[in-house]
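User: I'm putting together a small comparison set for a docking exercise, and I want a reference complex before I start. The sequence is below, and the ligand is zinc ion. Could you produce the 3D structure with the ligand included, as structure tokens?
Assistant: Of course. I'll restate your input first, then give the structure tokens for the complex.
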Amino acid sequence: MTSSPQINAQRLLQRIADFASIGATQAGGVNRQALSVEDRAARRLLAELAFARGFNVYQDAIANLFISRAGRDPSLPPVLIGSHLDSQPTGGRFDGALGTLSAFEVLEALQDAGVVTERSVEMVSWTNEEGSRFSPGCMGSMAFVGVGDIAGWRDTRGTDGTRLGDELAATLKALPEAKMQPVGHAVSSFVEVHIEQGPVLERAGIPIGLVTSVQGTRWLEVSFIGEAAHAGTTPLEFRKDPMAAAVAAIAQLQLVVMPADPMARLTVGRMSVEPSSVNVIPSKVTFTIDIRHPSKELLSSIEARIDAECRTSAKRHMVDVLIEKRFDLAPGKFDTTVVDVIDSACERLCVPNMKIVSGAFHDALFVSRVAPTAMIFVPCRDGISHNEAEFVTSENIETGAKVLLETALSLARGAMTSYFPSARRPRHLPMSKRAVRKARS
Ligand SMILES: [Zn+2]
């Protein structure tokens, strides 16, 4: 007997609490870093829940975990939904887990109601989205779309000194019941629910964000190189002080970049000083700059501005400067058809929503390279994320899951198969040496 599928909010809230207990921290957050013992425990719990419901469970060589509920026509590529289960070392209980467990709730709701979808509905928990233990982040989704280099990543060392290849093998081995499948398969579309990780939705009092695009990110490393000298005996005209140059450049950039453009983001997050002694003028000051913008052209103009300001400051302070690009992720646009499907789902459910640009990058950005993709954002309190205090209201959790269910039904329903008659298969192109270096840095 079939009935209209319903999200079981109590069950979803309990699942979120259950998973938050795996790697729980004293302050109410989660430390469940990628491929750790805690990550393995979370994967095991999810797989056990899936087996109990009779779903198919499989994983690939980078430990992406898939759970599939079969549709009527197995020849059609499935609708994919999901997110990630790994966390930052002092992460919150919703970043990633919300989207992953909402996706599982959708599968359960379909199963409870006995609904037969045309396409299979499949959920995924991507491996190492956060990149906090092993760099880079989004390894699972990168590998899935063929821009990752699993062989090259194996020798990557984690922040705890472990080797990725060893931790990956142990993670795969910890779930022997899950069938292995090749990395990357055709999917008809992908939808990821995620907390906004910013204040826009909460401030607007709107429960759902339709994510239309993800801003681009570039990471630069700037080194000012001067000359170590005695702090007490070296007069101003003899100083080649890289700290003076660095603070002047940073202050100038803070004055000009963000105030001129509300979409621009510029962050100096890490700084190191050599030799780092109280009474020595430093020989070298190195710092990182993270810049973000939805426009590739404007990202480039910010980068040019950084270059110019750093060179001007270096000249003024008689030091050298070296600027290296460490990471470059182009802005991404999500598929307008999928955004429209989510929009219609909200309309049918009478859920207020707004279009929004994602400030953070997500697995969905990579998946959008091979399949029509979009994201559903749910507000989090005060926009706080990557923080143990991360919080989402029960009401918003339920709304996000309902919109995901309605969206997945549309995308998987027979009448909707005409959306994406021929899903593109991921192309596994060999990675250039430069791309590998970039991915590893
Ligand atoms: Zn996340």
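DSSP finds 13 helices and 17 strands in the chain. The first strand starts at residue 56 and ends at 59.
User: Thanks, that's exactly what I needed.
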